Amino acid sequence: MNSVKHTVRLGVALLALGLAAGCADDNESDAPNLGAAWSAYEQGDWQAAGEDFLSAVTADPAAAEAWCGLGWSRAALQVQGGFGDQREGVLTAFEQADRLRPDYVDAWAGLAEFHSSANDTVAALEWALDAAEAGGPGYQFAHRAAVTHRSLRKIAAWSLFKLGRYSEAGAQVRLVLSGFQYAGGADSLEVLLEGIHSL
What is the dihedral of CA 10, 11, 17, 18, to 10 degrees? Predict the structure, then answer.
Protein backbone atom coordinates (compact mmCIF):
# COMPACT_ATOMS: atom_id res chain seq x y z
CA MET A 1 0.00 0.00 0.00
CA ASN A 2 2.82 2.38 0.93
CA SER A 3 4.62 1.59 -2.32
CA VAL A 4 1.46 2.45 -4.30
CA LYS A 5 1.16 5.81 -2.50
CA HIS A 6 4.85 6.44 -3.10
CA THR A 7 4.46 5.62 -6.82
CA VAL A 8 1.41 7.92 -7.14
CA ARG A 9 3.19 10.77 -5.36
CA LEU A 10 6.28 10.29 -7.53
CA GLY A 11 4.12 10.25 -10.67
CA VAL A 12 2.32 13.46 -9.63
CA ALA A 13 5.64 15.15 -8.85
CA LEU A 14 7.12 14.13 -12.21
CA LEU A 15 3.98 15.31 -14.02
CA ALA A 16 4.19 18.70 -12.27
CA LEU A 17 7.86 19.04 -13.19
CA GLY A 18 7.10 18.08 -16.78
CA LEU A 19 4.33 20.67 -17.03
CA ALA A 20 6.54 23.35 -15.52
CA ALA A 21 9.35 22.55 -17.93
CA GLY A 22 6.91 22.54 -20.83
CA CYS A 23 5.59 25.97 -19.84
CA ALA A 24 9.10 27.36 -19.55
CA ASP A 25 9.98 26.04 -23.02
CA ASP A 26 6.76 27.43 -24.44
CA ASN A 27 7.46 30.89 -23.00
CA GLU A 28 10.95 30.93 -24.46
CA SER A 29 9.80 29.74 -27.89
CA ASP A 30 6.90 32.22 -27.92
CA ALA A 31 9.16 35.25 -27.42
CA PRO A 32 9.43 37.04 -30.77
CA ASN A 33 12.78 36.92 -32.54
CA LEU A 34 13.52 40.55 -33.36
CA GLY A 35 16.96 40.11 -34.92
CA ALA A 36 15.79 40.68 -38.52
CA ALA A 37 13.66 43.67 -37.50
CA TRP A 38 16.51 45.37 -35.65
CA SER A 39 18.90 44.58 -38.51
CA ALA A 40 16.53 46.28 -40.97
CA TYR A 41 16.27 49.26 -38.62
CA GLU A 42 20.06 49.57 -38.31
CA GLN A 43 20.42 49.41 -42.11
CA GLY A 44 17.93 52.26 -42.54
CA ASP A 45 15.12 50.13 -43.98
CA TRP A 46 12.63 51.56 -41.51
CA GLN A 47 9.56 50.49 -43.44
CA ALA A 48 10.62 46.82 -43.39
CA ALA A 49 11.65 47.14 -39.75
CA GLY A 50 8.27 48.65 -38.87
CA GLU A 51 6.43 45.84 -40.65
CA ASP A 52 8.49 43.22 -38.79
CA PHE A 53 7.95 44.89 -35.42
CA LEU A 54 4.22 45.27 -36.14
CA SER A 55 4.00 41.54 -36.93
CA ALA A 56 5.79 40.81 -33.65
CA VAL A 57 3.41 42.90 -31.52
CA THR A 58 0.42 41.43 -33.35
CA ALA A 59 1.67 37.95 -32.45
CA ASP A 60 2.65 38.95 -28.90
CA PRO A 61 1.07 42.19 -27.63
CA ALA A 62 3.11 41.89 -24.41
CA ALA A 63 6.47 42.10 -26.23
CA ALA A 64 7.81 45.41 -24.90
CA GLU A 65 10.94 45.37 -27.05
CA ALA A 66 8.87 44.90 -30.21
CA TRP A 67 6.72 47.91 -29.27
CA CYS A 68 9.89 49.92 -28.64
CA GLY A 69 11.31 48.92 -32.04
CA LEU A 70 8.02 49.84 -33.68
CA GLY A 71 8.25 53.28 -32.08
CA TRP A 72 11.81 53.85 -33.29
CA SER A 73 10.92 52.66 -36.81
CA ARG A 74 7.83 54.85 -37.07
CA ALA A 75 9.75 57.84 -35.68
CA ALA A 76 12.41 57.40 -38.38
CA LEU A 77 9.72 57.21 -41.07
CA GLN A 78 8.12 60.38 -39.69
CA VAL A 79 11.42 62.26 -39.92
CA GLN A 80 12.12 60.87 -43.40
CA GLY A 81 8.68 61.91 -44.66
CA GLY A 82 6.63 60.43 -47.48
CA PHE A 83 4.96 57.79 -45.31
CA GLY A 84 2.06 59.82 -43.93
CA ASP A 85 1.67 61.14 -40.43
CA GLN A 86 3.27 58.63 -38.06
CA ARG A 87 3.04 60.73 -34.89
CA GLU A 88 0.15 58.95 -33.20
CA GLY A 89 1.63 55.55 -34.05
CA VAL A 90 5.03 56.58 -32.66
CA LEU A 91 3.56 57.71 -29.35
CA THR A 92 1.30 54.67 -29.05
CA ALA A 93 4.20 52.26 -29.62
CA PHE A 94 6.62 53.92 -27.20
CA GLU A 95 3.96 54.41 -24.52
CA GLN A 96 2.92 50.75 -24.79
CA ALA A 97 6.58 49.70 -24.41
CA ASP A 98 6.84 51.94 -21.35
CA ARG A 99 3.71 50.39 -19.81
CA LEU A 100 4.96 46.87 -20.36
CA ARG A 101 8.51 47.33 -19.06
CA PRO A 102 9.27 49.55 -16.06
CA ASP A 103 12.13 52.02 -16.46
CA TYR A 104 12.47 51.25 -20.18
CA VAL A 105 15.24 53.70 -21.01
CA ASP A 106 15.31 52.87 -24.74
CA ALA A 107 11.63 53.81 -25.05
CA TRP A 108 12.17 57.00 -23.03
CA ALA A 109 15.14 57.94 -25.22
CA GLY A 110 12.97 57.36 -28.27
CA LEU A 111 10.30 59.66 -26.87
CA ALA A 112 12.92 62.33 -26.10
CA GLU A 113 14.32 62.15 -29.64
CA PHE A 114 10.87 62.15 -31.22
CA HIS A 115 9.53 65.10 -29.23
CA SER A 116 12.76 67.02 -29.84
CA SER A 117 12.49 66.53 -33.61
CA ALA A 118 8.83 67.64 -33.41
CA ASN A 119 9.83 70.80 -31.46
CA ASP A 120 7.69 69.72 -28.52
CA THR A 121 10.10 71.32 -26.06
CA VAL A 122 8.51 70.46 -22.72
CA ALA A 123 7.89 66.79 -23.57
CA ALA A 124 11.41 66.45 -25.05
CA LEU A 125 12.88 67.89 -21.85
CA GLU A 126 10.92 65.60 -19.54
CA TRP A 127 11.72 62.40 -21.44
CA ALA A 128 15.38 63.34 -21.98
CA LEU A 129 15.87 63.99 -18.27
CA ASP A 130 14.14 60.73 -17.31
CA ALA A 131 16.17 58.69 -19.80
CA ALA A 132 19.49 60.34 -18.92
CA GLU A 133 18.96 59.88 -15.19
CA ALA A 134 17.80 56.26 -15.48
CA GLY A 135 20.37 55.28 -18.11
CA GLY A 136 23.33 56.91 -16.40
CA PRO A 137 26.58 58.14 -17.96
CA GLY A 138 27.26 54.84 -19.73
CA TYR A 139 23.94 54.67 -21.57
CA GLN A 140 23.94 54.04 -25.32
CA PHE A 141 21.05 52.74 -27.39
CA ALA A 142 22.22 49.44 -28.87
CA HIS A 143 20.59 49.99 -32.26
CA ARG A 144 21.56 53.62 -32.89
CA ALA A 145 25.01 54.58 -31.67
CA ALA A 146 24.31 58.34 -31.69
CA VAL A 147 21.70 58.00 -28.93
CA THR A 148 23.66 58.21 -25.70
CA HIS A 149 23.63 59.78 -22.27
CA ARG A 150 25.45 62.74 -23.85
CA SER A 151 22.85 63.20 -26.63
CA LEU A 152 20.04 63.06 -24.07
CA ARG A 153 21.74 65.76 -22.00
CA LYS A 154 22.05 67.82 -25.20
CA ILE A 155 18.29 67.53 -25.81
CA ALA A 156 17.64 68.54 -22.21
CA ALA A 157 20.07 71.48 -22.38
CA TRP A 158 18.68 72.74 -25.69
CA SER A 159 15.10 72.41 -24.43
CA LEU A 160 15.97 74.35 -21.27
CA PHE A 161 17.69 77.01 -23.37
CA LYS A 162 14.58 77.42 -25.53
CA LEU A 163 12.51 77.79 -22.36
CA GLY A 164 14.85 80.55 -21.12
CA ARG A 165 16.10 78.43 -18.22
CA TYR A 166 19.74 79.21 -18.94
CA SER A 167 21.35 78.26 -15.66
CA GLU A 168 19.66 74.84 -15.77
CA ALA A 169 20.80 74.42 -19.38
CA GLY A 170 24.35 75.17 -18.28
CA ALA A 171 24.04 72.59 -15.52
CA GLN A 172 23.11 69.94 -18.10
CA VAL A 173 26.23 70.77 -20.11
CA ARG A 174 28.38 70.56 -16.96
CA LEU A 175 27.06 67.04 -16.24
CA VAL A 176 28.90 65.95 -19.39
CA LEU A 177 31.66 68.54 -19.65
CA SER A 178 32.76 69.08 -16.07
CA GLY A 179 35.04 72.02 -16.94
CA PHE A 180 32.30 74.00 -18.69
CA GLN A 181 31.92 77.53 -17.30
CA TYR A 182 28.83 79.65 -17.78
CA ALA A 183 28.37 82.88 -15.84
CA GLY A 184 24.59 82.83 -16.16
CA GLY A 185 24.04 86.26 -17.67
CA ALA A 186 22.40 87.21 -20.95
CA ASP A 187 25.74 88.51 -22.21
CA SER A 188 27.21 85.01 -22.04
CA LEU A 189 24.47 83.15 -23.91
CA GLU A 190 26.86 82.56 -26.80
CA VAL A 191 29.12 80.64 -24.43
CA LEU A 192 26.14 78.55 -23.33
CA LEU A 193 25.10 77.87 -26.93
CA GLU A 194 28.64 76.78 -27.80
CA GLY A 195 28.60 74.43 -24.82
CA ILE A 196 25.28 72.91 -25.88
CA HIS A 197 26.43 72.46 -29.47
CA SER A 198 29.62 70.78 -28.29
CA LEU A 199 27.66 67.97 -26.63
Answer: 150
- 134 closest CA partner among 109, 100, 110: 109
pTM of the shown model: 0.81
Closest-CA residue to 133 (of 164, 118, 155): 155
Instruction: Name the CA radius of gyration of the chain, rounded.
Output: 23
Asked if residues 126 and 155 have their Cβ atoms less than 8 Å apart, the reply is no
pLDDT, tens digit, 9 for 90 and up, residues 71-118: 999 999 988 886 778 899 999 999 999 999 989 999 999 999 999 999
3-state secondary structure 110-168: HHHHHHHHCCCHHHHHHHHHHHHHHHCCCCECCCCCCCEHHHHHHHHHHHHHHCCCHHH
Q: Tell me how far apart the alpha carbons of residues 56 and 22 are, in angstroms, rounded to a whole number.
A: 22
Helices within the chain (DSSP H only): 2-30, 35-42, 46-59, 64-80, 87-100, 105-117, 121-135, 149-162, 166-176, 189-197
Distance CA 24, CA 26 (A): 5
How far is it, in rounded angstroms, from Cα 174 to Cα 180?
Answer: 5
Query: pLDDT tens, 176-187?
Result: 999 898 877 666
